[in-house]
Amino acid sequence: MARKSGSHNKSMFEERIKNEMNSFLRTELKDPRLMLMSITRVELNQDYSVASVYWDTFDSSKRGDIKSALEGTKGRLRSLLAKNLKVRHTPELNFSYDSQFEDERKIENLLKDNPSGE
Fold first, then answer.
1. Run of H or E including 63
2. 37, β-bridge pairs
3. How confident is the model at residue 116 (pLDDT cuts 50, 70, 90)?
4. Element containing residue 59 per DSSP (H, E)
5. How would you class 90 by CB atoms within 10 Å of its CB: exposed for 0-12, middle for 13-18, buried for 19 or more?
6. What phi and psi values does residue 31 have, to the nearest 5 degrees?
7. Is residue 3 pLDDT above 70, yes or no?
8. What angle do CA 33, 59, 100 make, to 5 degrees?
9. For residue 56, what is the domain's CATH number?
10. CA dihedral over 20, 34, 107, 42, signed as positive or negative
11. Which of 20, 55, 62, 89 is the most buried if burial means most Cβ atoms within 10 Å?
């Protein structure tokens, strides 16, 4: 039973980090490159020391610019998280492009192009 509760707490903490980061991207950082993306999910490692932060954009031509902007603001984002989350240790942030939505769009386009399934 305790494990389930721990898993629930972890999920809630991941969601909170995601929401805080999306808010910071719009209100605190004001980098135009970061206005083109959003944080889609956050996954914490077992001891909560590292957060894998996944992001997506509808403008795939800007992925490189966005990744550079995220890497450049990593320290600032972590500081903002530390201030708002009020936890003893703020996780290290690792950013990755979330290709899940792009893959889904490709599949949808394939289905549209070939409705008979051939």
1. helix 63-72
2. 57
3. low
4. none
5. buried
6. -90, 120
7. no
8. 110
9. 3.30.300.20
10. negative
11. 55
